[in-house]
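anyone seen this seq b4? input:
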Amino acid sequence: MLSKNELAKEIKRLEAKNKSLKSEISMIKISASYKLAQQIVERCKSKVGLLTLPFFIVNQFLVRKLKKFIKFNGHIPKHFSEEDLGIDITTQSYKQGVSVLIPCYNGEVFVNRCLDSLAKQSLPKALVEVIIILNGRLDNSLNIINSFQEEHPELLIRVESLEEANVSRARNQAIESATREFSIFLDIDDEISANYLKNLLDMAKLNTVVFANIKDVLIYSDEAKGDSGKLELSNQNHKLSFDDVMPLVSKNACKLIPTQLLKQLKYNKTLKSGEDVVFMSELFAKLKPQITLCKHFNETFYIRHVTDNSVSRKASSYEFCVSQRLEVIAQLDSLLSQQTNKLSKYLLLNFINFQLNFVADYILNNQESYKILLQDKRLNTINFDIETAINRKI
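predicted toks r here
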């Protein structure tokens, strides 16, 4: 039991420590949480506990505010330490490491190659979880995955399923299931270089998106292959700007993203294509994370296998090249109207112009479709002049 003098000193110390927060005491509600209520009940059992109760509640409120700050910024503010707060900012509510998020539709031909690239990762397997979302018609993918898991028990693989074939729903479910601090997206027909996860994770921070390089393996037949698509960045010491990595920003691939950022967003389930452009636009425009390159950027690759069935090589059609692009533009335009930040506006305008150029290229090569375009009611929902985009191409 404290003496009167000791009690007076303790109260005086607490008053000094919490002086700047006294005005916020009224904002605290006893019913904030069951755990907090239990702590309060314990303090009410003694006179000293009662006297210090207001300061205890204020400190709980302060810690909650600081946790929110840390969750987004990835560091503790000056004049505080992890010991002061009783938390470890490196773990938060997530486990250490990387969640690999893989939507899988008709993936039986590719799944072994994809998983093999994960088994070969130089990052310790204890830091990796693989989440595969089977969506749509079931093929032999699940049996292949189960066999692979038996051969590689050190690699944690979790498989979930959706009846509907919808890549956005599959990615949303994978995000919800992610338990590691950071996440990457990987398509079932792609793979990653052996150093990929380690080089990304080495640069990871809770408020930063880390970029890797990308390489397309062009497959025209079983025998003819070639490489393209690599992004060469010779100087990695200068401050990275979005212009440096603009070809990579709107892609699902080639980036490590804090999981707590991903869980604040959803892929648009109604878009038939371009859902990655809209999602990444929201990520960078709304949440405004920092960006950096992974270690050894020019040797760290997300490897896309581009075939005749790939989305990027779909047969040219009005539906894909015009209708679906207008739907994406409408989403980006709506997001643009909400922005005040110059960098966010700049990014969105870049993405919109890319979609407009896609439309313009199609119309120039299929001029009979121009009349159809002018009658498209979706033109009235966006604030951009398609004619100007077409004229720029002429």
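The two ends are 87 Å apart (CA to CA). The first strand starts at residue 95 and ends at 104. kinda curious what u guys think
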